[in-house]
Amino acid sequence: MTDNFPSWLDDDGGSATPDARPPTRAGGGSGDDGGTTSRRRRKKKRRNRTVLALVILAVLLGLVALLVIFALQGRTAVTEMRAAMPLVSELRQEALGGETDAAGATADELREHTSAARDAVDGPHWAVAAKLPWIGANVAAVRTTTAVVDDLAADALPDLVAATDIVDPARLAPQDGRIDLAPFTEVAPRVVAANDAVVAGRDRLDSVDSDELVGLLGDQIDKLKGQVDELAGLTATASRAVQLIPPMLGAEESREYILMVQNNAEPRATGGLTGAFLLLRAEDGAVELVEQRSAGEVGYFGDGAVELTDTEIALFGTQLARYPGNVTATPDFPRSAEIISAMWSEGVGGEVDGVLSLDPVALGSLLEATGPIGLDDGELGALGVPSEMFGGDARLTADNAADIMLNGVYRYIDDTSAQDEFFEVAAATIFSAVMTGEAAPAATVASLVQAADEGRLIVWSAHEEEQDLLAGTVLSGELRGDTGHGAPVVGVYVNDLSAAKIAFYQRMEVEVEAKQCHANGNQDVTVSVTLTSDVPDGAAELPNSLAGNGSVVDKGDMRSNLLVYAPTGGRITDVRDPDTDDVGAFPQVHNQQVVVGRRVNLSPGDSVTTQFDITTGPGFTSDAVLRMTPGPGGERYISSALTCRH
C-alpha cells in the first residue's frame, strides 16, 4: 500500500537514499521512467530557488534604492525648509516696515524654497512611510509643515504683500483733512482671506505634536510655529484694520466719538483722571473736532449714570458712575466707555458711536511726527499762561508736551478752570495737527502703535460687530486674565486717592518672577510692585492744585489704591510687605478674576514694595504677560522667563 503514495508528499529534499529504487506501479512500468521524473522535479526546484533568490535580491536592491531616494529627498526638504524659515520672519518685518518691493522679492524666494521642499516629500512612498511605527510621526510632521508653509507662500502671503502695497502708512495720513478709504475697502477681501489662510495653517501646525518627534526636528518645528504665530499676529491686525477703518471713519454713514484725554498725574486704572473730552465727527474719512468739554461740563450724576455692581462699588466707589473724571478707575475700558456714553447722553445729549482714549504721553509722541506746534499767544494770555511755562517759547514739542500738560499747567496756572481749558486746548491742537496732514505718516503710525502697546491708546465701538473685532487686541483695554494663546495675564493697576496731581512724581516698578510650572499647566509667579515718591524738596511750597491742600493727605503726600489681578482661573495665595506685617489687603472677585487691593501711603522720598504670590489657572504654556497702569513715563517692568511646555 505504501508504494502507491505519490512522491510529491515527501518533504523538501525527499526521503529515499540515492541507491533506492523507485517503486513499480501495478501493471508494469519501467524504473527508468520514474528516475527521469524525479530528476525533472529536482531541476524545477533548483530553478524556483534561483528565481526566489533573484526576487529577494531585487527587493533588497529596491529597498536600498528607496532608502537612497528617501535620504536624498529628505535632505532636499530639510535644506529647502532651513532656507525658507528665516524668510517668514524677514517677510513679516518688511511688511511691517512698508518695504513692499523687498517683501515681494522675499515672497518669491520663499515660494521657491517651500515648493521645492514640498515636492521633495511628495509621492506614495512618503505617504506609506508616514504610516510606519516611530518614523511615521516624523515623516508626517515634515509633510505637514512643508505643505502648510508652501500653501502660505503660494496663496496667503502674496495677498498680504499686495495689501501692504495698497495700504501703506502714507495712506493713513489725512490729505486735505481726510483719509482716502477706497484702498482699504478694495483690499479688504484679500486681506481677510489671507488671514483666514494663515490661521488655518497655524492650526494645522499646532496639530503636530513636537514632543513625539526626534529632538532636532521637534525644535525646528517649534521654531516654525513661533514664526507663523508672529505672522498670524500681523495678518490678524491687517484683517481687523481693513474691516474697521472704513466703517469707523464714516465710509457708509457719519460717526461721532468721544475722545477722552486721561491725565496720568492723577492715576486711574487705565491711565488717569479724564480731564478733557473732545467730540469728534467722522464722515467719509474726514474727522473734525465738533466740541470740547471738561469733566465738569459733561455733568455730575448724583444718582449714578449706570447701575454699578457691588464689586465695582467695593473696588472703585460710587464715583465711578457719578463723576466723568473717574470712569477710568475700572481696568475694564469697555465698561468705562459704556459709563461715559451714558453720561454724555444724559448730560450733553445724543448717542455716540464709540469712545477713544489717549494720554499726554501719547499726544507728545505724536509731536515726533508733526514737529513742534505753536499755541496762540492771545489765547494763552487769556488763560494766564506765563511764558516761563514753555521756557520762553510757547510751543509744544515731543520733549515738553507731557511735562507741560501733566505738571507745568498746575505749577504755573492758578485758576483751576483755566487749567482745564489749557489741557483741552493743548490736546485739541495736537489732534488737529495730525488730522490736517501736518504729520509724517510713518512716524504717526509708529507713535500710535507704541501708544497702543503701552496701553495709552484705547478704542471702544458701540457697534457690536466692530467691538467683536477689537476684543482681544491691545486697543481694547478690556479686563482679561489671559491672551487667548496660552499666556496668563497679570494686571497691576493704581487709582490715586490724593485728590491732587502729585502722582506725577510717583514711580511704579513691577517685577514678575516665575517660580514653578505644574503638570496641569498651573504656574506659580511672584509679583513685586514698588511705588516710590520722587516729590522734590519743598513740597509745602508747591501749588495746592498740584500737591493738594492737606485735606485728604498731608501736602505733598500720596495715597494710592493698588490693585493686582490674578490670571484666568488663578488665585492670590499670599500678600506681604517686607517692611511691615500690617499689609491691610482686601480680596474681591471682579469679572471672574481674583483681585487683591492694598492702600499705599507715600511721603516724599518713600518707597513701598508689596509682593503677591500668584498661582495661575491650568493650561498655560507661555510666560506671564503684564498689563499695568501707564504712568507719566517713569514706570518699569522686569520679568523672568519660565515657559511651561506640556
TrEMBL record:
<keyword id="KW-0472">Membrane</keyword>
<feature type="region of interest" description="Disordered">
    <location>
        <begin position="1"/>
        <end position="45"/>
    </location>
</feature>
<protein>
    <submittedName>
        <fullName>DUF4012 domain-containing protein</fullName>
    </submittedName>
</protein>
<keyword id="KW-0812">Transmembrane</keyword>
<dbReference type="Pfam" id="PF13196">
    <property type="entry name" value="DUF4012"/>
</dbReference>
<feature type="transmembrane region" description="Helical">
    <location>
        <begin position="50"/>
        <end position="72"/>
    </location>
</feature>
<dbReference type="InterPro" id="IPR025101">
    <property type="entry name" value="DUF4012"/>
</dbReference>
<keyword id="KW-1133">Transmembrane helix</keyword>
